[in-house]
Amino acid sequence: VSFNAIDSALSSLKNCQSYINSGMDVATQVALDLVESFNDEEDVNNMEKVMLEYATMDRELNHYIKAFEETINQVKREKPENLPDLENLAREKFLEMESVNSDSDLQRNEKYMYFKDQLKEMKKQYHGNDTIEQIDEDIAVTRSQMNFICPITQVTMKRPVRNKVCGHIYEEDAILEMIQTQKQKKKKVRCPKMGCSHVDVKGSDLVRDEILKRLIDSQKKQ
Hints:
By secondary structure, the chain is mainly alpha-helical.
């Protein structure tokens, strides 16, 4: 088996990862739609099971990719006279990784964690245990115009993203452009929210705030 053939196979596997990620995004949207339309809790739970199945596939794929990458690097490093059976070597590494799997791995999947976080927020908005007055007051505060305005563009956000580190929210395109511009200058990005002390905003720290987006869209329709 040539290294080029393996590189090509790894590239295909990484493409599969993007399909898994897309599937998890769709499952999250469907679950939020179910909560918003007051569907049966069992339907929402079924979407969580789908997310866990995706997380399992993602973990397996990651192990497979890692096993092959480690095998190739090992062979290139050791430069043996006779090329070993790369497939068998990779399979051994893969099985070793899979042998220490646990359910907690799946719970730590980033997309699954995002799913749980957004679901919790959506349930709080639509099925809170507080009195009706408290719920109305909470929604009124959440819907305040200030929460809808991006600190960078100073206009209402269309695709809000939340910074996992400091919790502040920005327009996705605006913050990514800021990060890219500063990266070219080899500088870090300070959180653009006034008064925030976070001085190193990274693209990997940003997650889409689906609940806020729905609130913004809802207000536009009114």
